[in-house]
User: Fold this.
Amino acid sequence: MALDMDKLNGFIGQFVGDLGAAVAAGMVVIGERLGLYKALVAGPLSSAELAAKTSTDERYVREWLASQAAGGYVTYDEKTNKFSLSEEQAFTLANEDSPAYLPGAFQLALGSLAAVPRIADSFRTGAGMGWHEHDDGVFHGCEKFFRPGYAANLATTWIPALHDVKGKLEAGGRVADVGCGKGASTILMAKAFPKSQFFGFDYHDKSIEGARESAKRQGVADRVIFEVAKAKEFPGKDYDFVSVFDCLHDMGDPVGAAKHVLNSLAKDGTWMIVEPFANDGLKDNLNPVGRVYYSFSTLLCTPCSRSQEVGLCLGAQAGETRIREVVTTAGFSRFRRATETPFNIVYESRP
Ligand SMILES: C[S@@+](CC[C@H](N)C(=O)[O-])C[C@H]1O[C@@H](n2cnc3c(N)ncnc32)[C@H](O)[C@@H]1O
Assistant:
C-alpha cells in the first residue's frame, strides 16, 4: 500500500480544522452565555479588562480568548496584548439582530451532540427520538439559529414571492404556523402583518410555553395564540395561509400532515413550506451546507420522524422531488418552488 503523503497531510489538516471546530462549539456557547462577545465590541480589551467587565475569572477568560484568537473568532493585537472584534466578527457574534448571527447554530450543535450515545444505540435498534426528548440547548439553539434568517427574508422576500398572500395578510387574514417551535416565525409575521390573526401550533409543550412568553414580551400576544397540537390535528378551518418552517421533514407522517393542512385551508388559501436547501441527488448535496444538514438530520430530524407514526424519515435533505411527491399525494393540485436562499427553499402549495 502506497500512501500519497500530500493527500494524507491534506486530510489530517482538514481533521485538525474539524476537531478545532467541534470543541469551538463549546467555546462559542460559553462566549454567548457570559456576554463575552458583546463586551468585546467595546474593545480592544485585555483579558483582565474583559473579565472585570463580565464579572468572570481572568484565568478562564484568558484561555478562552486564546482559543478564539487561534480560531479567527476574535482579533489579537500582539503589541498591546489586547483582544477585539473586527466589524465582521462583531456582526456575526455579538449582534443578535444580524441576519448572520452565529452563536445559536453552535448552541443547537452542542445540544444535539448530547444525544450521541442514544442515537448510536438507535443505529442498532432503529428506535426514534422525539424532538421533546432532546437537551434544552436544541430548542433555544434552534430558535436563535433560524430566527435571523427568517427576520431577514420572511416578510420582505418569502411571503412576497407567493401568489396573492402579502395583500391578504396586510388586509387581515387567518394564519396557522404549524410546527412553530418557540414561535420565532409566527411572531415575526405577527409584527409584519398587524391586521392578521396568527395561530402557532407545535406538539412540544415546552416550546409552546416559550413561544407564549416571547409573544407577551414582544407585545403581540393580542394577535398570536400558541397551542400545543400535532400537525395532523391542529384546530381551525378556512385559514388564508398555513406555514411550516423547517419541520415538515421532521414529521413522521408528512403526507398525513399535508392532508390536514389541505382540509384546514380556505379554497383560495396557500401553504408555504420552508425546507432546508437541498438538491435531489446525494452527490449534489456533498458540500459544506449539506454536511451541516445531514449531520443535524442524523441527530435530530430522522430520529424525530422515526419516533412518530408512519416514520417516513424524509431527512433534512429531502429535495424538491420528494417534497412535491408528499404535497401532491396529499391532494394539493399546485406546487412550485417560489424562492430560495443558500440555506432554505420556499415552496408554495395551493389546493
Ligand atoms: C427544527 S424545529 C423547527 C421549529 C420552528 N418551525 C422554527 O423554524 O424555528 C422542528 C419542530 O417541529 C416540531 N414537530 C415535529 N413533529 C411534529 C408534529 N408531528 N406535529 C407538530 N409539530 C411537530 C418539533 O416539536 C419542533 O418544534
Q: What stands out?
A: Residues 131, 142-143, 146, 179-181, 184-185, 202-204, 207, 230-231, 245-247, 250-251, 304, 308 surround S-adenosylmethionine (CB under 6 Å). The first helix runs from residue 5 to 33. The chain has a mean pLDDT of 97. The chain has 14 helices and nine strands.
